[in-house]
Design goal:
With 272 residues, the protein is mostly beta strands. It is built from 3 helices and 23 strands.
Length: 272
Amino acid sequence: AVNTLLMPGESRAKLTLSDGRVVLLDKMQNDETMIDAGNSFIRRGEGRVTYVKGSEKSPGKVEYNVMEVPRGGEYVLELCDGTRVWLNAASELMYPDHFSADQRKVVLKGEAYFEVTKDVKRPFSVVLGDMEVKVLGTSFNVSAYPGVKRQTTLIEGQVAVNWHRQQVVIRPGQQAVETDEGLRVASVNVMNYVGWKEHRFVYENKLLGEVLEDLERWYDVEVFVMHDEIRNLHLTANLPKYENMDKVLEIIEYAACVKFEVKGRTVVVRRD
């Protein structure tokens, strides 16, 4: 079998403006260009777009934009208030081109890391379906991929997580996780949850099934697990995110005693 070189993901995204125009963003775009987004101006450069502050033409009507990052992609976005958002693979953020006078609200599917600009008069909140994470100014990671328990991990500052009738407030180094009994707060090693933003996959005793899902999204492959118990193996590793996949699989094979076979964009996992 020819071992195909499965390259890591890269900077790319699709931006849909409020008037329906679509802008494709990728890392080839090195020279800075300005995009007229109807109600505001957007600067695009290397791997990120920035909503230029104070460029709203008519601060009346709030227009919504949507940034979609595909599998095998990631992207950085700077909102009009200076808040920076790192979007992970297979994620989508809906946000206004400018915020109203009393609040800042965005809607996330997938995973993102936020560095929120402090603005006491306008709390910032991230909506994840029927869950909401409220912030004043802080750095945190939110993971809300379909079919996975949603989790909010706090790096600095303070956030409140609201779900159904429950609210929990978490401090730096803590994480709020959705469970069948409601929200649970625990202290965690935050690097395990934000490593992706620093170009690493950092795993501490993580279920192999969850690790394989990360790899599926980042390398845009389908992983087939031959024996169910493989998903419940645990992995502790710190892997370089920008390596080709065979390098990463080699390390996991050694650490978790499994065997990978790659055919095209399909990866088969067996017990070693």
